[in-house]
Automatic annotation (TrEMBL):
UniProt keyword terms in alphabetical order: Aminotransferase, Pyridoxal phosphate, Transferase
Record-given protein name: Putative aminotransferase
Molecular function terms, GO-annotated: pyridoxal phosphate binding; transaminase activity
The keyword Transferase is assigned to this record: yes
Lineage top rank: taxon: Bacteria
Gene Ontology biological process: polysaccharide biosynthetic process
One Pfam family here: DegT_DnrJ_EryC1
InterPro entries, A to Z: DegT/StrS_aminotransferase, PyrdxlP-dep_Trfase, PyrdxlP-dep_Trfase_major, PyrdxlP-dep_Trfase_small
């Protein structure tokens, strides 16, 4: 979902100046950027720290008389809680701007899931991804959390992984509400967003990985112990 798609969808719904749109801060900036392009005001909701997707309870807390829509995001391959969000939207008369379905190669998804199951069982010292019961995780990213003192420990662990040949990355270095374009928005209390942004990183996971590569990845991570 691009900012232009969000803008055009909101404009088509008659949503613009004077309206508020609830968006996540942890994840891509397109929902907030598109909301501003449409002339509306983004209001940032917190996330569920297990799924990394927007928390329906936090969304509910941010609904006001000016709220016109919400834009959930399926993050890292875990689907947003659309059933709960749809119920909330129905109660308050809000539009839900959903991502268009992406064509996924079923074989590639099956391999990523198999790789993820191996890492779930093999990794120690980090918090592995969570899947909500009944959800179909696509594992577009395999994002873990590093216990410890937040960003300093996460960054040290990341550097150690890279030095040992594991190309880990930080998927969301800065939450959207802290970016210059959005700092003037309504002040946001987003404790889970801040914590996850500070202690999470994504490990390499792709369909073509061999068992040897997966075992090497797990071995390197486990030898570091999570906190460096």
């Amino acid at each position: 979902m691009t900012a232009t798609v969000v803008r055009d969808t909101l404009n088509a719904l008659g949503i613009g100046r004077g309206d508020e749109v609830i968006v996540p801060s942890y994840g891509p900036g397109a929902p907030a950027d598109g909301t501003r392009l449409a002339g509306a005001t983004p209001v940032f909701a917190d996330i569920d720290a297990r799924t990394y997707c927007v928390d329906p309870a936090s969304v509910a807390d941010r609904v006001t008389a000016r709220t016109a829509a919400l834009v959930p995001v399926n993050l890292f391959g875990h689907p947003a809680a659309l059933d709960r969000l749809a119920d909330l939207a129905l109660r308050h008369g809000l539009a839900v701007v959903e991502e268009a379905p992406h064509g996924e190669d079923l074989g590639a998804v099956a391999r990523r899931r198999a790789h993820a199951r191996f890492l779930d069982s093999a990794l120690t010292g980090v918090v592995v991804p969570y899947t909500e019961p009944g959800a179909h995780h696509l594992y577009q990213r395999y994002t873990v959390r590093v216990p410890g003192n937040g960003r300093p420990d996460r960054d040290a662990y990341l550097r150690a992984l890279v030095e040992r040949g594991v190309p880990a990355t930080v998927a969301v270095p800065v939450p959207v509400h802290r970016m210059p374009a959005h700092r003037a928005a309504r002040p946001a209390e987003l404790p889970q967003t801040e914590r996850v942004a500070a202690d999470s990183l994504s490990l390499p996971l792709h369909p073509g990985m061999t068992q040897r590569e997966l075992t090497h990845l797990a071995t390197v991570c486990n030898r570091l112990g999570g906190v460096v």
